Amino acid sequence: MDPPAAFVIEELARGVGARGYPPSAGTLDYRDAAAHWMNRRFAVALAPDDLAACVGTKEFVGSLAGYLHLRQPERDTVLYPAVSYPTYAMGATLAGLRSVSVALVNGQLDLGSIDPTDISRALVLWANSPSNPTGALDDLEGLATWGRRHGVLVVSDECYAEYTWATRPRTILEHGADGVLALHSISKRSNLAGFRAGFYAGDSEIVAYLRSVRQHAGFMVPGPVQAAAASAFADDAHVELQRERYRRRLELLSGALKRLDVDAPFPDGAFYLWCSKDGMDGWGLATMLAERSGLVVSPGELYGEAGTDFVRIAVVQPDERLELAASRLEAS
Question: Which residues form the domain of 219?
Answer without folding.
Answer: 6-233
